[in-house]
C-alpha cells in the first residue's frame, strides 16, 4: 500500500510535490552537416565540463564513426569523473521512438554528438527532442557555405517551425588575424543567432581528445584563456536551461 507523500513512478501522491528528475533533463544537440568542424570536440569538452562539476551527464553518440564513444573508452581507463555513454548509429533509418528511448535513459545533462550529413527526417527527429543546438563552424569558405545551408535546413524542419529551438554558433579552430577568420567573423555577425565564442586552434584539444578528457581537465596554465572562452558557452547554456525550466509545459 502506498503511503501519503510516497513517490510512485517519479510522481508524488499526497501533499508533498517532488520534482521528477527526468523533467530536469537538459538536452544539448551538437550539430552541423559539415564533417570535421569540431562537433565531437565540442560534445566531449561539454561532457567533461559538466562531469567535473559533479553533474549527471550522458553523451549520446549518433555517429557511426563512434569518435565520442572511443573518447569515452579512453576516459574509462582514467580516474576522471564518470560520464554515461549511449550509442545509436544513424547509419540505417532510425525512428524518433528509438532516439526518444535513448533520451529516457540519460542523466540530467544529455549531450548529443551527431554525424556529418545530418538532414531530412533524422534532423527533424533529433531537433524535436532537444532543447538547444550548438553549431561549430570552421574558418573556411567551404565551411561557411555548408553552415549556411545547414542553418537553413534546420529552420525549415517541421519541428523547428512548430517550436524554434535556441540555436547558437561557435567559431572553432580560429587563427586570429587571418583573412579567413575575418570572413568567418563577418559571417557570424551577420546571423540572427548568438555567436557564443571563438575556440582557438590548439593542440591542447587534440591532446585532451587522445586522453579521454576535456580542456578543463588539463592541468595547465596555458589553457586558462581557452577556459574563459568556454565559460561563456557554459553561462549561455545555464541561462537557456533556467529559462526552459521556468516555462511549464515547454518540453
Ligand atoms: N580548436 C581545435 N584546435 C585544434 N584541433 C581541433 C580543434 N577542434 C577540433 N580539432 C581537431 O579537428 C579534428 C576534427 O574535429 P572533430 O571534433 O572530430 O570534428 P567533427 O566531429 O565535426 O567531425 C579532430 O582531429 C580534432 O581533434
Ligand atoms: Mg565527430
Characterization of this structure:
The two termini are 32 Å apart. The protein has a seven-stranded parallel β-sheet with strand order 5-4-6-3-7-8-9, sandwiched between helices. Strands 1-2 form a two-stranded antiparallel sheet. The protein has one domain (22-239): Rossmann fold, CATH 3.40.50.300. The chain is 43% helix and 18% strand. It has 251 residues and is of the alpha/beta class. The chain contains nine helices and nine strands. The model is unreliable at 1-15 (pLDDT under 50). The site of adenosine-5'-diphosphate has 16 residues, from helix 1, strand 8 and helix 8.
List keywords for this structure.
alpha/beta; Rossmann fold; two-stranded antiparallel sheet; 43% helix; globular; disordered N terminus; binds adenosine-5'-diphosphate; binds magnesium ion
Provide a compact summary of the structure:
The chain is of the alpha/beta class. The chain contains nine helices and nine strands.
